Amino acid sequence: MFSMDLLLGAVVLGVLLGCFYAAVSVGLSVSFGLLDVPHVAHPAFLVLASYGVYQLNESYDIDPLLAGLAITPLFFLFGLLAYRVYYETFERRGSDAGVRGIAFFFGIAFIIEVLIILQFGVDQRSVSATYIGKSWRFGEFRIPIRQLVAFAVALALTVLLAVYLSKTFMGRAIRAVAQDEEALRLMGANPVRIKQFAFGIATAVLGIAGALLIIVAPVEPTLDRAYIGRTFCVVVMAGLGSISGTLIAAIILGVAESIVLTMFGASWAPAISFAMLLGVLAVRPQGLLGR
Amino acid sequence: MKRRTFLGGAMAVAVVGQGSRALAQQPPIKIGMSMPQTGGLAGGGKASLLGIEIWRDDINAKGGLLGRKVELVVYDDKSSASETPAIYAKLVDVDKVDLLFAPYATVPTAPIMPFVKQRGLLLMGNFSFQVNSKVGHDMWFNNAPWGPADSWAASFLDLAQKAGGKNMALLTADQEFAQNLALTARDVAKQRNIPVVFDQSYPPNTVEFASIIRALKAAKPDIVYVASYPPDSAGILRAVNEIGIGDDVKIFGGGMVGLQFAAVMSNLGSLLNGVVNYNTWLPEPSMYFDGTKEFFEKYTKRAIEAKVDPLGYYLAPFGYAMGQMIEAAVGATKSLDQKGIAKYLRENEHKTIVGPIAFSADGERKETATLQAQFRGVKDKDIEQFRSSGKQVILFPDKLKTGNLIVPFEAARK
Questions:
Q1: Residues B27 and B83: beta-carbon distance below 8 Å
Q2: Complex confidence, ipTM
Q3: Cβ–Cβ of B42/A10 closer than 8 Å?
């Protein structure tokens, strides 16, 4: 049964969902897209961040977004440490090729999952805030406020990161290391330190993304598995390393998912998302905005 | 002391000593099982296991089964159907357990049914839904109160029709348990000429339900039957609260897994109000039997250290009841002969802390004892409120009923 109202609603909700997908994927766009690190633990880091936000919200009644901001420096340090361990044990020895690098991050993801279970148990956790559970009405149409919040914050986060990478000295250095590490070394810069810093940035943004994750829906320790496909799909479809591409790809994915959920039946949603990825790669193997 | 008396006394002490040493030396009775302790079903699995452990400790304090201690051999199946066949083969062939309990839930249990049937082993089911319907194993006994396959949907639709419901929307998770529920709901609706105006399954890992709820609302149903899994139940109710479901809806819920667990109930708080959902045990006056109160006193203390569901209503007492049934059957047959135990379980009614249990030929309850209850007056962020009666009023079955349905759904939510 086709209805213009339903289609319009699906597009609006899809754009909101897409921006949220961009926020949870943008860190991976830096770590995997720019640095070539097979960071399959990215969604596990994300879930860890949302548990951090949960802890601050539960214990001190801090707003989830502020809590996300508060853990961002910690996640920056965590990112620096994680990359250093990865570099020393894999990259430096040249043993990061193929599945070995992936195995390292899979291992980290499992360790994080187990640590969360030990600390918080297996139950779902959620946060409370004034904007969760309410909606804005436009006539008959209602939009969940938590999704509007996620949309605004996600948009701001993505734009800020895009500006940082293109306008600041360090941001340009990160892009340079992604383009030609050897050239950077010849110019006297230390590419490992730049990559480590970039990985720190990629992990730091997960503080905010983790807050959005737990604002949008309750979290549980194994939730990372649900996001591993989506985040990699967004980053690859966007074109590796393209931040604005990440936003566009995520919105396309969100809108497609929402239209399919509303108009055709929920069972098709994952298939359509990945079919779109394959379609984009067939026409533009470098992704939407990839070079 | 005369010499004869002293000798007699010494001999008596020696005999008693030998006797108790012989008892202590008897190997324990091993009960083997897998249990989801990680993954999506872990919340339920851990609570169920705690119920079984409390029974083990109680029976061991009473001297064990057949004078032997009871020992549990438990492996984590990670909530996965692919893990359980190997675990159960190991339990039987390597660990040589005496009896088998099934893991919590349908998904991990289904793949071990052919194995136990082929080997002729007794399997005490643990909250599976219809896993024996096609296998037809005559040594399967499910501890869950489900009863006949269609009774679950039938009881919900009974309530819905009495409230004036005439057409139905069906929202189902793409999981075996939920799909089985949906199948019976479609059948019952067809028998009663209730048109299904919306019928959608959603895949696991669906993040956002707002779009689905909008589509459901557009179909203007007056009965909404939802068969969902824990991660989704919270998302669905949140979306219903935000998007609205329409004034036509008389009754909403039915088969939402998750709303039986303390953490989910506490998270959702007032969003639960009005939802009519299945349950197995609730702290309503009609639900207390011999030993129920004592069981929950022990459970409440141990749940804190074990970091499991602090309420434990849904699964834990049924884990204990599973042990009670084995205790009664082994006690009556005075052996561990699995065929004899199965015969006893099939032919008798068993007194347990969740009420009397009698099995039909397929190993499910003869009569359903699955509750349909409506959430009322629930406040936000308060687990303790669920310990008092009146928060989930039992509407079905009649003999356990503690109140009447409030309609429509939007009115019941206030």
A1: no
A2: 0.81
A3: no
